[in-house]
Amino acid sequence: MKKSKIIAVIAAFLTISTLSGCIVPTVRRNKNNEQTSTTNKTLSTEESQSEPPEETKEPEQEIIAIGETIVFDEWEITVNSVEVKESIPISKYTQYTPEEGNVYIVVNTTIKNTDTNSATFLPTYSFGNDISAKLVYEEYEFSSSVLLSYSDDLHDTHLNPLSSKIGVIAFGVTKEIADPNNFNLVLFNRNESFTFSLNSENQNI
């Protein structure tokens, strides 16, 4: 009799063990009170971990060579040449000189107004989305110098439609780094920018 009880207990134990290893469907009800069946399963570690999103790289900005023309807003702009000057004469008796230990990097540039209205290039006081200029050397940025009373300075140049002008944009930099080949000219507004290489080896003339 004891032997029969032992066998019954073993059989019951085996039955429970077998059922616990089975996949048991789970019944759920949707909004319409209809039964839907899903299967419980254990996710592996690899399945439960989502792959990290791929990093999106910003496209590299095109570098524009000396002699190439771009269209930026209502302007056609071409960098013609670049030179280093100790001073910039504005009349027979007057000249602009940079701070002590500095020189000017002078970028000779042609601009043309392609808009249907008159427009101002590099306005000294900007109240909208106007173009600005800066000179970039490695991580350093240099603002342009406004040369008042100098007719060739392109700051505040007001042109009628289809009119053009050749002038300069000047930047004061220290003598120790004053090699134009190491600089880029960046023209920019709130929405976009264009980068000109001032390296003479990249001329497209």
Distance between the amino and carboxyl termini? 110 Å
Provide the helix percentage.
10-25%
The secondary-structure element order is HEEHEEEEEEEEEEEEE
**CATH topology of the domain at 63-202, which one?**
Immunoglobulin-like
Largest sheet: 5 strands, mixed
Q: Which whole number gives the mean pLDDT?
A: 81
Reading side by side through the largest sheet, how are the strands ordered?
3-15-14-10-11
Q: Structural class, please?
A: mainly beta
So, CATH architecture of the domain at 63-202?
A: Sandwich
Q: What is the level 1 CATH name of the domain at 63-202?
A: Mainly Beta
Number of strands: 15
What general form does the structure show? Answer: globular
Question: How would you summarize this macromolecular structure in one to three sentences?
Answer:
This protein is mainly beta. The protein has helices at residues 2-20, 45-48; strands at 25-29, 35-39, 63-64, 69-72, 75-85, 88-89, 95-96, 102-113, 119-121, 132-137, 140-143, 157-159, 164-174, 184-188, 193-197.
Q: What does the model show?
A:
By secondary structure, the chain is mainly beta. It has a domain at 63-202: Immunoglobulin-like, CATH 2.60.40.1240. Helix content is 11%, strand content 39%. The chain has helices at 2-20, 45-48; strands at 25-29, 35-39, 63-64, 69-72, 75-85, 88-89, 95-96, 102-113, 119-121, 132-137, 140-143, 157-159, 164-174, 184-188, 193-197. It is globular, with a radius of gyration of 36 Å. Mean pLDDT is 81; it is low at 13-29 and 36-48.
